[in-house]
């Protein structure tokens, strides 16, 4: 819902909004291939566990690529952990190389992770979350997308978590 709301503010068409909503629902489907002991670990992941976790993008891509109706969706699922600075995964894509929908999803996925309770920590306040998005503009996130999110926080984020 967050990606849909952000897409709306960014001026996406109804077709693009439906697409981003589907991608948002399916982006972590690859986690079904990650062992529960890694997904639910209460502490920091070891290097080996982190490598298993990072595979969820390719696992999701492989699952969804089997259906022709998901040919565009699977590409965004694969790239939703790429970073604007090129230090993401699985391919290390950079800036405009990252599909637009994946750049939207990257911001939304990070916010959702911070605003949700995890086995290893409670959810983070809006203030801290906004600070994290702001300080990572142009590093992890497309600056324009992150700025739009920050300027429209109440409309996009607050109503989902309060």
Describe the protein's architecture and organization.
The chain has 162 residues and is an all-alpha fold. The chain has helices spanning 2-9, 14-26, 36-39, 47-54, 56-64, 71-79, 100-114, 126-135, 143-151, 153-161. Helix 1 runs antiparallel to helix 10 (153-161), helix 2 (14-26) packs across helix 6 and helix 5 runs antiparallel to helix 6.
Shape, per Cα inertia axes: globular
The largest pleated sheet is described as:
none
Radius of gyration, whole Å: 15 Å
* Fraction of residues in H or I helices: 55-70%
Number of helices: 10
Number of strands: 0
> Which residues sit in consecutive blocks of at least 5 with pLDDT less than 50?
none
In short:
This protein has 162 residues and is mainly α.
How do the strands and helices of this protein lay out in sequence?
Blueprint: H1 2-9, H2 14-26, H3 36-39, H4 47-54, H5 56-64, H6 71-79, H7 100-114, H8 126-135, H9 143-151, H10 153-161
């Amino acid at each position: 819902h967050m990606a849909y709301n952000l897409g709306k503010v960014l001026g996406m068409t109804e077709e693009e909004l439906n697409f981003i909503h589907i991608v948002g629902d399916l982006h972590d489907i690859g986690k079904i291939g990650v062992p529960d002991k890694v997904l639910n670990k209460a502490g920091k992941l070891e290097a080996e566990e982190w490598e298993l976790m990072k595979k969820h993008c390719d696992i999701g891509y492989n699952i969804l690529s089997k259906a022709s109706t998901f040919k565009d969706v699977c590409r965004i699922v694969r790239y939703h952990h790429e970073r604007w600075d090129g230090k993401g995964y699985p391919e290390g894509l950079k800036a405009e190389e990252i599909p637009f929908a994946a750049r939207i999803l990257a911001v939304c996925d990070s916010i959702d992770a911070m605003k949700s309770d995890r086995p290893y920590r409670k959810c983070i306040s809006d203030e801290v979350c906004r600070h994290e998005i702001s300080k990572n503009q142009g590093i992890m996130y497309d600056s324009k997308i992150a700025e739009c999110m920050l300027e429209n926080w109440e409309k996009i984020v607050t109503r989902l978590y309060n």
